[in-house]
Amino acid sequence: MASNDDEQLEALSQWFRENGKALIAGVVIAVGGVFGWQQWGAYQDRQMEAASATYMQLLDARHTGADTDTILRRARVLMDEYGGTPYAAMGAFHLATHLADAGELDAVAEPLSWVVQNADDEGFRHIARLRLAQAHIGSGSFEAALEVLRVEDTGTFAARYAERRGDAYRGLGEVDSALEAYDNALAEVDSQQRRQLIERKRDDLAQGNA
What we know:
- This protein is an all-alpha fold.
- It has 2 domains: about 1-120, no CATH class; about 145-210, Methane Monooxygenase Hydroxylase, Chain G, domain 1 (Up-down Bundle), CATH 1.20.58.
- It has 10 helices and no strands.
- It has helices spanning about 5-35, 35-65, 70-80, 85-100, 110-120, 120-140, 140-150, 160-170, 175-190, 190-210.
- Helix 2 (about 35-65) runs antiparallel to helix 3 (about 70-80) and helix 4 (about 85-100) runs antiparallel to helix 5 (about 110-120).
């Protein structure tokens, strides 16, 4: 079952696939007076096309079961050479997922941190923080997870942030803080499946400390 942040990521990825050219056109308008419409637009088109081709190579490598070195190399090209395109962030997510699936949990933080620091899209940055926090929780680094989750404006991801905080506090043994975080998540969540999961977490924690 896909998690809510997985669904958000796919929605953002689909939006960029459908609206990437319009997005670039806006940038072209903004800087046209400096570089000239045609020169800048042609450059951005070439960058987007090259990034798209590299991204498709990365997807092909993942789907055909390529080794980690190949996945890493193609993702790094996106991040290093096409960091100004949405394909770079999507490539970093694929790299992080591949590393997690391969059991290389310590390496997951690097591509996710890259998205947090470099992605232009706020939704991508939120998803990266949430996944980075989950990776820290999975490795027992609960304080590090809470540090990642210290964000003032969580937008439409408020429930996910609160749930992750609850998981981190639970790992630290801070029951009251965990229960409060889960309550905050329940107040924001809009998915019935997600609500049931959070309720189970909260009830298990409350019953275990009754």
